[in-house]
């Protein structure tokens, strides 16, 4: 809503009203339109810890429309400048590299808390008492056992099916084991989803390596139980190494939530349509699977494997700057200084490599790649810094996880964040401004398609040929071999182009 002609100075300004709770918005709409005839007060949404302010789009639309008679919406591809919800779960300040869960700095939680205690904080809003944490841990552990039908379903996947594909499908399959009426008690499903998510993930891993599934153990901690289900063979008393349990706990604490990232926004979209939480989490995990989002840790390690040695970093960075490659693990929609999680995980890498007792050549490449990128004007000018995925992949590799298992190691902890948003949205609908939270999320669009035109029947002879390239079908060598067989005999002379 600012002047689009540089001969007309931008007259947009905001003036605090007496009550300072709202602002008068007067703006020039365009040089060929009169300024709004009268100022309109817009309610301002402000955060106690954030300097930016937000105006209700509805008020802005009304202010402009009443001045110009034109309904004027904001086009914001990727929602770069759009706020879709109020939330009290996670606060991020991308300029200062600040991240807090329910007001507590991520650095303190990573150092002093456990993943399950952090999950309680995110979901219920405060740190639990000793008794509450014990009760919560027991509820989650008791709900970590799977229906045998779900285990049979998981065994039906190909051995080399991507673990995320198995997990997403199995999470949606869990939804088929609950009755609709049961969905009233969201907290019960919170325990169940948290408990069963790690069992689903462990089973996906065991299926991949051809091992029988381990039953969860309710006497072990959450992360410890996950590693137990992954690695126990026949020992009755197998326990994962406590230092590895702690390392994974820290990884899961920093991955647990991150305000309205792509997958969490997807969760909110699905919950607005009243989807059950299991199916919604399957959808959110699908969004997380993308290499631009939670699939980046896998992409980072594959990128480091492609670079292989320090002397190949420069040519790789040249390709990135020529836009032939992306530097996975770098850049972030919010963090334009540094991602505090990347700093925490970089410290973890050193500890784990020492514990495992291996020299991880990819870590040397990762450190040198980070050093050079941080010195390079291309990345500095675009404020691209290491994000959470830059080092998490190196840690997972050092711990011996298969590369395609990394997105699932991101999804498990992020379920705590998705459930926190799910519960917050449900509470908002009950306790806060009802009008605001019952909308099914449905953004608008700008239509740029064909002008109105009549249907032309196929055999009318008037249908114009399909303009773009002919409909092609990618052919595998197998289908080409088959096709040659079909074309053999009388029409051998036909050659395949
Ligand atoms: C996660 O949102 C969250 O909170 C996500 C997450 C969470 O916890 O949920 O933090 C987890 O998803 C971390 C991000 C993991 N993804 C990657 O590491 C993939 C690589 N990163 C990029 O794809 C990218 O940085 C994004 C997607 C993360 C952010 O992209 P933006 O904010 O939309 O930035 P942009 O695409 O507008 O880029 C601005 C400029 C462009 O250059 P110019 O057109 O100005 O010349 O920066 C360049 C981009 O080409 N750029 C990169 C780059 N990221 C941005 N160039 C090379 N390598 C990159 N990684």
Automatic annotation (TrEMBL):
GO terms for molecular function: acyltransferase activity, acyl groups converted into alkyl on transfer. Pfam families: Citrate_synt. The keyword Metal-binding does not apply. InterPro entries: Citrate_synth-like_lrg_a-sub (IPR016142), Citrate_synth-like_sm_a-sub (IPR016143), Citrate_synthase (IPR002020), Citrate_synthase_AS (IPR019810), Citrate_synthase_sf (IPR036969). Pathway: Carbohydrate metabolism. It comes from the Eukaryota. GO terms for biological process: monocarboxylic acid metabolic process; tricarboxylic acid cycle. Keywords: Transferase, Tricarboxylic acid cycle. Belongs to the citrate synthase family. This is Citrate synthase. It comes from Cyanidiococcus yangmingshanensis.
